[in-house]
Write a structure and sequence with these properties.
With 162 residues, the protein is α+β, with helices and mostly antiparallel strands. The chain has 4 helices and 3 strands. It has a domain of 50 residues. It is elongated and about 95 Å long. The two termini are 28 Å apart.
Length: 162
């Protein structure tokens, strides 16, 4: 699979071959969806929490004796029936939203997403990226020259760590 390579000015500088094992896959939307859902679930944090009767402050002593008062029997003033008591079936911090996806499935979904980008013509390969000044303004100029107003957003992936 051949793809055009561009320089920093947005001019075509040649072509390159992309590996068919990565960029030539057919897309299975169910697999990509499953991986995206698992990533979003793994990012999710437990925020809602209500105290149950064991977590509410106070209520260690029996409010009145069991028999002989003519009132209902109670063991604690922090019962869910009382004002200031714990919540019966409220949300707790112990919930777990994690979903485990096998490494091979994650990898395959990434390759499918990359294949989809190539088929839609949304993948742009740049020969080298050199910045004299490390300024956002300079980088934006280069991006505008390369993308030519095709898209509002871009993901930049480098070949190696710097």
């Amino acid at each position: 699979m051949k793809v055009s390579v561009y320089d920093q000015q947005g001019k075509e500088a040649g072509t390159t071959l992309l590996p068919k094992e990565i960029f030539g896959l057919s897309v299975k939307p169910d697999l990509v969806h499953q991986v995206i859902i698992s990533q979003m679930a793994n990012r999710r944090r437990v925020i809602a929490h209500a105290k149950d009767r064991s977590e509410v402050r106070g209520g260690g002593k029996k409010p009145w004796r069991q028999k002989g008062t003519g009132r209902a029997r109670h063991g604690s003033i922090r019962s869910p029936l009382w004002k200031g008591g714990g919540v019966t079936f409220g949300p707790t911090k112990e919930r777990n939203f994690k979903k485990i996806i096998p490494k091979k499935m994650k990898r395959k979904a990434l390759f499918m997403a990359l294949s989809s980008k190539v088929k839609d013509g949304e993948l742009v390969v740049v020969d080298e990226l050199k910045l004299e000044n490390h300024k956002t303004k300079d980088f934006v100029k280069i991006l505008k020259a390369i993308l030519k107003g095709k898209t509002e957003s871009a993901l930049v992936a480098l070949a190696q760590k710097r």
